[in-house]
Amino acid sequence: MILLLNEQEIIDGVCVFVANKYDVEPQDVNLQELSYNKSVGFTANATFRGHYNADTLDTEDISEGIVLFLEEFHSFNPDVMTVELKFHKNIFSAEVRVNEDKKTIIL
Fold this sequence. Notes:
This protein is 30% helix and 39% strand. The chain is an alpha+beta fold. It has one domain (2-106). Helix 1 (7-22) packs across helix 2. It comes from Gottfriedia endophytica. Pfam families: DUF2653.
């Protein structure tokens, strides 16, 4: 199965990642910037509890956040997921493969 995630779902993943790392609630995390650069890849910056800056997240952290988001909020098994972040025509998206099946679901 292939899940196609939009930018908001990527942001949700970033919030879940930061929340888990800093022991706060995802709703206490605010994304400041999500960006893509050909030489660096994907990065994200977030704050939590209104003013504390989290470390800059890289492509791996963002992908891990998406896996955590799908595991915690949609009960997916993290052991059978792979994430590919995409940036096309100024739009962020992610393709998540679950069990490498061919069926596609758009969340």
